[in-house]
Inverse folding.
């Protein structure tokens, strides 16, 4: 019970400290901020240490080391390269050879460029283009394997989606000035984009409110109530 | 050599990974996974630089008694205790072989009692910032801001019982104007259209950016064209 | 007519790719012969039929899964006459496998009714396997005959993704073409992007006020292309900052980003001829934790009051916390991200926002180099292609739907097939 009380009071102290920032910057917030930075940085490093370095590299390269024994190093090229790249990163600390740390950075940038090229081509590009290709209108019955357009509302929706996608893309054109008919089309495109942003905004508001209600619930129902209970009120 | 070679590495790695996506055979088939591993390992080593930097900055602040230096002691203390708790698995029921975040360990206790409430509270501040941002959008007088606000307002209300109640009088032919129905239509039609335009644009942007990187045209991340 | 042209084109592309593969590695040319067994001729009918049993589905073809890294055999069959028709009482099909035709068969998977294929992804390459199919209904089970042997192997070409390759190739070509075309030709016209027009003014303002510039490259690591985009823009901005001798303050949440950003800014100072003015302290690591990072950034904002804030990279929920705090201290704010869910918040709280594609175009814009600008022209061509494809195919499908013409439909489907995903 005492342990639980301490935990609740720490939680309440930190919660109120963070909230106090809304009023203005103050020492209470600064303490919470300082704790947060220190603890979370330590948390991430310890997690990375065990989950990346030990589990992914040392376990595969030199398993005996993990078991605190003596054993052979497994000369697997993939893991050796990983180890070498990691050590190269650290060479920033060594005067004179610091430039070698550009190599692992170059590997990451190259890999990011290559992998994301494919990812975005497929998941953003090809997939979105494919999803936009539908019969805009057509008979109510199933015509030769095309999913039928069920109603005029659906047909209208299909046309609006096509117009929105089309004009939205026009907005993103870089090499043509937005004026005349082209500018008007781009303008319509921005309206669609703004509806998208508005929808996303409106969709998020309630979930953000519920986060705050969650903290209030902690303060009132957990902290205050349990404390009152503890002191016998 | 110092500048040109890294560019060459980027070029080669980038092209090999693109080509490898179309070659399932070894050793190309799992190159993507290999690079994910390289990245994870480089990240751990890099943390020694980042964490070391954090440690040094706050230590200097304390030593030189710079502004707000007592808070740096708190940061240093939190960092060292959490790091030691994790690396040495202090209080871990499974000992040094146990899972780092095992229940009962100091690491887990600090995570649950300190880290989690801080995280949740910071996240909860968003409720207020969403409010102030809405107010700002409300005051903007452009067509775009008005459209954004109207769409936001309809979707916000349409997802609440209040929105349903407010427009429940609209029946029959007018029922499509009921806020929940209007919300569904906005989400499924104009929102989707805008979403697609943005996503196709992003795809082209990423493709072009990647190509500029792996053709060696874009090299500012390593400091432009000078040596 | 159009139809045959298209299929001809589709056939010629794999040849080009094999040639490309050959260029990249001679050993890549070794295409394995397919390890296929056509089942019809080798049936060993062992099915035990009873009055209650459903009519058995028959195996169609059992073969190595094509265009993969090995370790998988694809099993295809013809539906049971009682699946979706006849007695219509089939639950599904259970797939059995053995290493010899008369050895012990074990179940490797179950496919629900209506399905006609299954991929056994648990095979060892080079080992021969035999399969049969059990058609399961509520009342009983019927077996198909045993297939001929099939072996799995890895292929050198992912034939499943050929369509993606073609589209990627076309877009690549247009970008690369304009990069090198622009190198020779005259300067391209580019429309103004307000957020980028304001960059110089924003830096100048910080210089005049004697306050720092805050640069946030998002909270993702260097394996996110948005972070890379943010850093390329940093490279351009840092050059101006070095020229003006403005103070830059760049807290980051990833160590690799810290190391890279230091390199970026340092080189900009070197290029500006002021290497001594550079200090590692300009870029510093806070914490990897999203909300810990934003707690610290908020503190920095209210205490150091930067005149200008840049948010360029990948952002999540923390975007609004930072942008609203920046707004409250009266900073000029320029944001850019490709996270659609965070864009509305930047738009509401910042002075300028680069939307999606504009983020990736920003460093090319700021560079003013013909080759970089050429790439943007290439992107526009990509957009024209995407828009034309969407428009033409939507119309084609609509015409097919209205006229109920099978030939127009199959033409439209062929085109749409290019955008299929494996």
């Amino acid at each position: 019970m005492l342990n639980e009380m301490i935990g609740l009071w720490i939680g309440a102290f930190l919660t109120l400290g963070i909230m106090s920032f809304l009023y203005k910057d103050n020492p209470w917030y600064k303490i919470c901020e300082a704790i947060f930075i220190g603890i979370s940085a330590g948390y991430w490093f310890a997690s990375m240490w065990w989950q990346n370095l030990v589990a992914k590299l040392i376990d595969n390269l030199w398993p005996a080391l993990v078991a605190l024994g003596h054993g052979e190093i497994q000369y697997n090229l993939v893991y050796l390269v990983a180890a070498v790249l990691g050590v190269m990163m650290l060479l920033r600390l060594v005067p004179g050879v610091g430039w070698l740390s550009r190599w692992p950075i170059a590997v990451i940038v190259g890999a990011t460029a290559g992998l994301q090229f494919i990812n975005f081509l497929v998941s953003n590009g090809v997939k979105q283009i494919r999803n936009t290709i539908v019969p805009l209108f057509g008979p109510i019955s199933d015509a030769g394997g095309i999913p039928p357009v069920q109603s005029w509302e659906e047909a209208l929706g299909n046309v609006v989606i096509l117009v929105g996608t089309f004009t939205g893309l026009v907005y993103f054109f870089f090499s043509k000035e937005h004026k005349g008919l082209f500018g008007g089309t781009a303008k319509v495109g921005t309206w669609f984009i703004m509806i998208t942003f508005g929808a996303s905004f409106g969709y998020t508001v309630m979930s953000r409110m519920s986060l705050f209600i969650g903290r209030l619930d902690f303060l009132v129902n957990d902290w205050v109530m349990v404390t009152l209970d503890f002191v016998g009120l | 050599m110092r500048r040109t070679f890294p560019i060459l590495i980027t070029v080669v790695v980038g092209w090999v990974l693109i080509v490898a996506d179309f070659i399932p055979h070894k050793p190309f088939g799992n190159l993507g996974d290999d690079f994910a591993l390289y990245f994870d390992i480089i990240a751990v080593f890099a943390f020694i630089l980042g964490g070391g930097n954090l440690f040094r900055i706050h230590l200097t602040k304390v030593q030189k008694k710079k502004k707000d230096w007592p808070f740096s002691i708190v940061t240093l203390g939190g960092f060292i205790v959490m790091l030691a708790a994790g690396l040495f698995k202090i209080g871990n029921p499974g000992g040094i072989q146990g899972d780092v975040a095992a229940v009962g360990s100091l690491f887990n206790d600090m995570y649950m009692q300190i880290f989690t409430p801080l995280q949740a509270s910071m996240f909860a501040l968003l409720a207020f910032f969403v409010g102030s941002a809405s107010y700002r959008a409300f005051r903007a007088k452009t067509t775009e801001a008005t459209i954004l606000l109207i769409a936001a307002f309809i979707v916000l209300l349409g997802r609440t019982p209040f929105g349903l109640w407010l427009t429940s009088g609209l029946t029959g032919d007018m029922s499509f104007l009921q806020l929940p129905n209007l919300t569904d239509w906005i989400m499924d039609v104009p929102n989707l259209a805008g979403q697609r335009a943005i996503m196709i644009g992003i795809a082209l942007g990423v493709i072009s950016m990647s190509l500029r990187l792996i053709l060696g045209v874009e090299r500012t991340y390593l400091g432009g064209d000078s040596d | 007519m159009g139809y045959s042209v298209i299929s001809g084109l589709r056939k010629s592309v794999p040849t080009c790719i094999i040639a490309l593969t050959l260029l990249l590695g001679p050993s890549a040319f070794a295409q394995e012969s397919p390890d296929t067994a056509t089942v019809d001729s080798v049936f060993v009918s062992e099915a035990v039929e009873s009055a209650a049993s459903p009519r058995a589905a028959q195996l169609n073809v059992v073969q190595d899964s094509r265009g993969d890294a090995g370790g998988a055999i694809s099993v295809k069959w013809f539906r049971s006459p009682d699946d979706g028709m006849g007695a219509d009482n089939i639950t599904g099909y259970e797939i059995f496998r053995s290493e010899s035709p008369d050895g012990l068969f074990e179940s490797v998977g179950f496919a629900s009714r209506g399905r006609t294929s299954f991929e056994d992804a648990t095979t060892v390459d080079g080992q021969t396997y035999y399969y049969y199919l059990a058609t399961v209904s509520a009342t009983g089970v019927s077996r198909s005959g045993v297939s001929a042997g099939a072996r799995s192997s890895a292929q050198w070409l992912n034939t499943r993704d050929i369509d993606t390759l073609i589209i990627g190739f076309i877009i690549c070509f247009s970008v690369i073409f304009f990069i090198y075309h622009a190198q020779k030709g005259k300067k391209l016209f580019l429309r103004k992007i307000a957020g980028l027009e304001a960059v110089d003014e924003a830096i100048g303002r910080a210089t005049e006020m004697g306050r720092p510039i805050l640069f946030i490259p998002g909270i993702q690591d260097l394996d996110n292309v948005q972070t890379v985009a943010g850093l390329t823009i940093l490279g351009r901005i840092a050059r101006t900052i070095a020229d003006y001798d403005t103070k830059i303050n760049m807290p980051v949440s990833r160590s690799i980003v810290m190391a890279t950003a230091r390199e970026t800014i340092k080189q900009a100072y070197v290029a500006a001829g002021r290497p001594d003015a550079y200090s590692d302290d300009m870029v510093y690591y806070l914490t990897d934790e999203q909300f810990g990072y934003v707690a610290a950034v908020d503190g920095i904002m209210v205490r150091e009051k930067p005149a200008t804030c840049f948010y360029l990279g990948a952002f999540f929920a923390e975007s609004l916390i930072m942008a609203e705090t920046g707004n409250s201290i009266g900073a000029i704010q320029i944001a850019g991200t490709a996270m659609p869910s965070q864009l509305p918040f930047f738009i509401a709280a910042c002075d300028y926002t680069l939307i999606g594609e504009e983020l990736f175009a920003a460093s090319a814009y700021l560079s003013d180099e013909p080759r970089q600008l050429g790439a943007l022209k290439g992107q526009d061509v990509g957009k024209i292609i995407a828009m034309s494809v969407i428009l033409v195919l939507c119309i084609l499908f609509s015409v097919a739907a209205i006229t109920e013409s099978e030939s127009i439909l199959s033409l439209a489907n062929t085109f749409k097939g290019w955008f299929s995903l494996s």
Remarks:
- The first helix of chain C runs from residue 2 to 24.
